[in-house]
Amino acid sequence: MADDNEPQQPDKDIHVRDHFDRMIRSYLRGVLSDEMIDEHRRGDPGHVSEPLARLLAWCQRRPLSEQYAVKAEADGTFRLIRFAGRRGNLPRYIGDERYATLQAARHGAFLRHVSDLTEK
Amino acid sequence: MAQQKIFGYANRISVRPGEEITFHVNCDGASEADAQLVKLIHGDSNPVGPGHIEAEVDSPVNGRWAVRKQFTQLGSYLEVTDPGRKLEVAGSFSLMAFIWPTLPHRGSRQTILGRWDTLRNTGYALGINPAGHLEFWVGNGAEVDYVTAELPLLAKVWYFVGVSYDRETGRAEIYQEGVLNRYNSLVGKVVPYDFASHVVQQFRFKPENRADVPFIIAGARDEHALRGPFVSDRYAGKIDRPAICNRALARAEMDHCRKGGLPPADAILAYWDTSMGYTAHGVRHEVIDTGPHGLNARGFNHPVRGMTGWNWTGKDDCFRLDPSQYGGIEFHPDAVTDCRWEVTERMTVPADLKSGIYAVRLRIGPGVGIAEEYIVFVVRPAKPTGKLCFLVPTASYLAYGNEVLSFDAHIIQPMTGQPPVVADIDVETYEHQEYGLSTYDHHEDDAGVCFSSYLRPIINMRPKYRMSSMNITWQFPADLSIVAWIDHMGYECDFITDEDLDREGVDLLRPYLCVMSGTHPEYVSEKMLDAQEDYIAGGGRLIYMGGNGYYWVVGFDPEAPACMEVRKLDSGMRAWAAKPGEHYLQTTGEKSGLWRNRGRAPQKLTGVGFIAEGFETSAPYRKMPDAWHRTVSWITEGVEGEIIGDSGLAYNGAAGVELDRYDLTLGTPPHTKIIASSGGHSDNYVLVTEELLYAYAGLTGSLDYRIRGDITYFTAPNDGAVFSTGSIAYGQALPAHGFNNSAARVLANVVNAFLKPGRLPGGQWTVEEKQWR
User: Fold this and answer.
1) Could you say which of B457, B588, B622, B738 would form a disulfide bridge with B7 (CB–CB 3.0 to 4.6 Å)?
2) What range does the domain containing A77 cover?
3) What is the band of B1 on the pLDDT scale with cuts at 50, 70, 90?
4) Max alpha carbon distance in chain A (Å)?
């Protein structure tokens, strides 16, 4: 614990964010279903069901270092990457899977988030 | 073999036949590149459109170019002009400055001011050591002596710092005192920190001074065998009124300076009064030395001026009110506004080269990805040749130049609603970060980037490029969809740029019957706005082809016209917010921010203004009742049914990405007609923040009727008129289905009408129009 007179203090806001995140995760685990995953797999753009919208909002608001992105490879395939979350540090590949379509890759990223949520 | 990559830029973004343009290239892994002049027609590889289209042009510049590695000086700093080497001090001296460090714990040495040779360890300097402590050091080429403050510096707090060094006795006393007040620092008086430190050290070694080492503020001289001299140990933060005196000042004399007093007149070697030089029109880059030798300092990579100083009291919010409170100059170790590369090749634009958007295409090795470069420039006509003019929104290209939102901005995935799609070129440019950032990014110390220049490679100002966060073309490559439509339709069209319009005003537009904008002309100077308003009022016809246009107040640097400045503040969809008191452009003296907040909402010029943004999906427009009114029914002639723009290269619709709407309360001309409007957008579309007084739930596409793009039309004096699409995606909808689609049909109706001089279609109904509804 840093002394109150020490200028280099940790950011305690993270404690509150973590508490909020636990509540959100608990809700999302309660509504997660095969139908929701299938809805995302179909990739219908635009209006999505409310549970899926809330799950996507959680995915997109996670810290940058916990978010996934798609890397377009020179051979036309797609792979998943994860950002470093630290300025100037490069993203790293996640897994070896190559996806034939962008939608498949985005669904792959979604499934990674689901796995992180359920810790399975 | 080393990785092959090639990047370049031109010294001009707009050039006339007969004028010279120079090209500056940096290459790794090759000594020659294949060069080809090309005319750019289309730049989006989306299979819904025609793909990338360019036309090779015969030119003396075509062929093999000798290319090599060129280095870029990162960071903003001041270099003192000292031809008489007055600061090659042989005796005792003192250094002092007010500082507001932003990254004292960066982990690397930062030089505040001095005449220090990092390679050879000679000279003297006052700076911040890697642990975040104020430090003074001298070197004789073999040994270095240091005196270090006991307490670390706190970020974003104003201090007065200095050193008194007696060469004869070797006594060096470092001076550190906090000078924070209620307004000037991140924290106030209630924090229980001790800011003061005074340490005395007896130095064993005396500084030696090399003749060729300059006195630098916010950096130090370094040297590399391949690169030659450059500036390292760059400082992050503000410096106010740095000075050097010719003797070791006593503590009481330093205390006097800490309170804002001048050093003893007979002791001053140089006193850079950073608050001098302000006028109603901003401030120049030269920093004035009021000392006896006039050793003025010159800024490189745009040190930021117009910034609050150590004595800012929070009342005067602009340097025009009290420049003495605006001595702060802000430095960023990662700023780049001019790569200053040597010329690789030059070209005189042939007299018969048709106006258009061109590039020198450079290829090495495989010739794809980062082994291919397009150095883009606009050829304007020697004299106006067509009736139609495309105003290339180069200010907006600069604003987005080299953005890295996907990598650094946590907000980007919630905003776009989708994971970014990153390509090799994005990773490469992010890894090396040699070419500077966009006005959507932050410097390393979290300050917003307010300058952007084209004297550096701009990775996203080229054909084929897709913005990774949105996975669509954006700005330049998106505008090529309009260019391709103009080419497809066979219109004679001249091309001019924002820079040209800022310099030449309405006279540049007057020869044309019709002027078209790009998809997202968001950044506009006062001269550009005045010119377009006067053009329309004088009988000109404007087609506003975009969304979120005419939004930010910008200035072009009169000393470096390739560089544009913007400050983001108060309201608006903004990537950063300028700090209190720092809302005015140093390049023009104007208040920056939104034009709407200066009484010139875009609705007043175009009929529509920014209302929402969203990604992933676009939508079509549906005709509104006005579409059938006999004064304007010609606009949708040939479009069966109610739907307009149900396809496109930007999320498969013409209404999308960023949307504008009709709003009488913001100055939409009252007789404006809403021809068509979109709606029912997804909830990824959100209301813009400048519309918010109170925030409440549901300000999204499926719940708020205001979230839509409006196609509007109004007539102006002298047979003038304005047609607006109210959507970024409209331009990218034009090439869909071989340019045969309803959005393209509507636009053709308008352009064809606008290119006929005299009364516009529907004009015969003027009297009745005034009585209608």
Assistant:
1) B457
2) 13-118
3) very low
4) 56
A1 within domain boundaries: no
Gap between the Cα atoms of A28 and B73, Å rounded: 49
What residues of A are in contact with residue B410 (Cβ under 8 Å)?
A: 63-64
- Taking alpha carbons only, the member of B213, B242, B245 closest to residue B230 is B213
Instruction: Tell me, yes or no, if A14 comes closer than 8 A to chain B by beta carbon.
Output: no
Task: Assess if residue A4 is contained within a domain.
Answer: no
pLDDT attached to residue B432: 85
Over residues B391-405, the pLDDT tens digits come to 999 999 999 999 999
> Which residues of chain A does B408 touch, with a Cβ-Cβ cutoff of 8 Å?
64, 87
Amino acid identity of A16?
A: V
Q: Which residues of A touch B702 (CB under 8 A)?
A: 47
Q: Kindly report the nearest CA distance between residue B153 and chain A, in angstroms.
A: 9
Do residues B433 and B459 make contact, with C-beta atoms less than 8 angstroms apart?
A: no
pLDDT tens figures, B281-291: 999 999 999 99
Encode pLDDT of A17-26 as tens digits.
999 999 999 9
Q: Enter the tokens of residue B226.
A: 């391949």
> Would you tell me the crossing angle of helices A50-61 and A13-31 to the nearest 10 degrees?
150
pLDDT in tens, B320-355: 999 999 999 999 999 999 999 999 999 999 999 999
Rg (Cα) of chain B, in Å, rounded? Answer: 28
> What pLDDT does residue A1 have?
46
Interface of B with A in 506-525 (CB under 8 A): none
Residue of A nearest to B131 (CA): A8
Q: Compute the distance between CA of residue A78 and CA of residue B422 in angstroms, rounded to an integer.
A: 10
Domain boundaries along the sequence of chain B = 77-331, 539-550+600-680+710-758
- Taking the C-alpha atoms of residue B678 and residue B655, their distance in angstroms, rounded to an integer, is 6
Task: List pLDDT tens digits, range B60-76.
Answer: 999 999 999 999 999 99
Q: What is the DSSP letter of B477?
A: H
Q: Is residue A106 part of a domain?
A: yes
List the CATH code of the domain at B77-331.
2.60.120.200
The answer to the question of residue A27 being in a domain is yes
Interface test with A, best of B195, B408, B441, B651 (most A CBs within 10 A): B408
User: What is the number of domains present in chain A?
Assistant: 1
